[in-house]
Design a protein that fits this description.
Blueprint lengths: L4 E4 L15 H14 L3 E5 L5 H9 L9 E7 L11 H8 L4 E7 L2 H8 L3 H17 L3 E7 L1 H7 L1 H13 L4 E6 L6 H14 L3 E6 L6 H10 L4 E4 L13 H11 L13 H12 L16 E2 L2 H9 L17 E2 L7 H7 L9 H16 L8 H12 L7 E11 L5 E11 L2 E9 L2 H13 L10 E9 L10 E8 L4 E8 L2 H22 L3
Parallel strand pairs: 1-2, 1-8, 2-3, 3-4, 4-5, 5-6, 6-7, 7-8, 9-10
Antiparallel strand pairs: 11-12, 12-13, 14-15, 15-16
Helix pairs in contact: 1-11, 5-7, 6-7, 8-9, 12-13, 13-14, 14-15, 15-17, 16-17
Bound molecules: acetyl coenzyme *A (ACO) and pyruvic acid (PYR).
Length: about 525
């Protein structure tokens, strides 16, 4: 099957998304990651646009890329002026990339109403720009902006612009659904018409304004497009570009097409999450293929079947795209969920115990607990129900004091009193807030006996009101995420008092860490 070239424009079109702003360093890190993933082309930016993009093309030359080619992007020459002196084309060539992508107008309405020029001059702008970059030794891709709307309005003219680019030496012409409003069957028809009109390869560039960008891109490939442009996780202007993650996975797994470099598909999840991190965006847990929930099973009937054979509720095996299966514990669980979450304790034959754990989960969830993001608290619950729990320390008391001083800066102080191995420990600590102060005092008291606790970091803290109708007397749920050198774990506490809820979640985190290290012989 023909290879489909993957052209990533996260660094250019992705950065046109609201709230996305990559630093130069971010762009270089992403370039390295995209190359590791095995994409064929990385569109690094618009060198004329700003000094950062210009510098990127200087700096990227020092990156040792294994596979990907870096591409500079820019528009056709300005109207009524020669290509040789055009500042945009000069910046494109000064980027010294092996490939340049030139975007041009194909919709007659844009030519007359936006560029303010004639249809003939626009065709010359395209041809001159492509020919000039070719004469300077660059491979040229031609992005046909608004091609689908242009083809709808004036098909002869739209095809004429494509032919101008191909005749001038473009190796790929790429019809763009710039406004993202085209339906999949129409995309297929128009791509077929474009292929019939030019001798060179045809690509596709879709936006997601109708939530159809993936379907449109796949329709284009089925109609013969051999280059796919898009962004990681679909970030981009308005509703975004096509999500390359889904496109790559569907092409490889569903259509058996040759994409990326061999063996790369299993890096998809890691690459997607890396892009979210660098873009400072939250992961989309329901994102197909790579989201944390993409292979998470919650309903009791589902988990029961998945335990017998995962294909009962999974369309592919998660490892294929580097993701993992998760079994979620909740009030919707049945005994088989509990069974699959407790395999390490080998409690399977004890039906009464499974029932007891399930009832405890349902009662606690009714009271406001949630164990989906707090598997460490669930683990402690199982230990307690199965008689495997032993206290590492005894909680005698805690107190938190917040003093608002005259300078307006509140000072928080926490005191904890614990019994550890028969000794009473009493420690005081200041912190940025009650949770920070309590955490610091807890560790001060415990680290002398359990030095591994020094390596625990609190990485996330979330509070959610459980029963908002009660106003300020409402119960709150605190979920804390903790991390050490090897693992990340979540714990939960619920109370009418936010400090107490935090304390419960904190203590669970510490206890889980102590059990975990003991089980791992640390
Ligand atoms: C569909 C897409 O995603 S295309 C890429 C869109 N991305 C961006 O625009 C981000 C980067 N852009 C920029 O940094 C700036 O817009 C620049 C540097 C390109 C141009 O900046 P300026 O010269 O100040 O122009 P400005 O942005 O105000 O307007 C765009 C100009 O480009 C012209 N233009 C637009 N498309 C094209 C084209 N394909 N070929 C030639 N000229 C074009 C417009 O007519 C307008 O020129 P005019 O004011 O003489 O009519
Ligand atoms: C080229 C481009 O980004 C577009 O037409 O959407």
């Amino acid at each position: 099957m023909t290879r489909v070239a993957i052209y990533d424009t996260t660094l250019r079109d992705g950065s046109q998304g609201e709230g996305v702003n990559f630093s130069l360093q971010d762009k270089l890190l992403l370039t390295r990651k995209l190359d590791e993933l095995g994409v064929d082309y990385i569109e690094g930016g618009y060198p004329l646009s700003n000094p950062k993009d210009f510098e990127y093309f200087q700096a990227v030359r020092d990156l040792p890329l294994r596979h990907a080619k870096v591409v500079a992007f820019g528009m056709t020459r300005r109207k009524n002026a020669p290509a040789e002196t055009d500042t945009c084309l000069k910046a494109l060539l000064d980027a010294h990339t092996p490939v340049v992508t030139i975007v041009g107008k194909t919709w007659d309405f844009h030519v007359t109403n936006v560029l303010g020029t004639t249809l003939d001059e626009n065709v010359r702008m395209i041809a001159d720009s492509v020919a000039f970059c070719r004469s300077q030794g660059r491979e040229v891709f031609y992005d046909a902006e608004h091609f689908f709307d242009g083809y709808q309005a004036n098909p002869e003219y739209a095809l004429r612009t494509l032919r101008a680019a191909a005749d001038a030496g473009a190796s790929v012409v790429i019809p763009c659904d710039t406004n993202g409003g085209t339906m999949p069957e129409r995309v297929a028809e128009v791509i077929a018409a474009a292929r019939a009109a030019v001798p060179c390869a045809v690509g596709i560039h879709c936006h997601n304004d109708c939530d159809l960008a993936v379907a449109n891109t796949l329709a284009a490939v089925r109609a013969g497009a051999t280059q796919v442009q898009g962004t990681m996780n679909g970030i981009g202007e308005r509703c975004g570009n096509v999500d390359l993650v889904s496109v790559i996975a569907n092409l490889a797994v569903k259509y058996g097409r040759d994409v990326l470099v061999p063996g790369s598909l299993a890096r998809l999840t890691e690459a997607s999450r890396y892009v979210y991190e660098i873009a400072n965006m939250n992961f989309r847990s329901g994102q197909p293929f790579v989201g944390a929930s993409a292979f998470a099973h919650k309903g009791g009937m589902h988990t029961h079947a998945v335990a017998k054979d995962p294909t009962t509720y999974e369309h592919i095996t998660p490892e294929l795209v580097g993701n993992e299966r998760r079994i979620l514990v909740s009030e919707l669980s049945g005994q088989s969920t509990i069974l699959s979450k407790t395999t390490k304790y080998q409690l399977g034959s004890d039906k009464a115990l499974m029932g007891k754990i399930l009832t405890a989960v349902q009662d606690l969830e009714h009271a406001g607990y949630e164990f989906e993001a707090a598997e460490a608290s669930f683990d402690l619950l199982v230990k307690k129900a199965a008689g495997l729990y032993r206290p590492w320390f005894e909680r005698l008391a805690y107190r938190v004091n917040i003093e608002a001083r005259a300078d307006g800066v509140p000072v928080t102080e926490a005191t904890v009193k614990l019994r550890i191995g028969g000794e009473t420990q009493f420690e005081v600590s200041e912190g940025d807030g009650p949770v920070n102060a309590l955490d610091a005092a807890l560790r001060k008291a415990l680290v002398p006996a359990y030095p591994n606790l020094a390596g625990v970091q609190l990485v996330d803290y979330k509070v959610r009101v459980v029963n908002p109708k009660e106003g300020t007397a409402a119960r709150v749920r605190v979920v804390i995420e903790s991390r050490d050198g090897t693992d990340v774990w979540g714990t939960v506490g619920v109370s009418e008092n936010v400090v107490e809820a935090s304390w419960l979640a904190l203590v669970d985190s510490i206890e889980y860490k102590l059990f975990k290290d003991a089980e791992q012989g640390k």
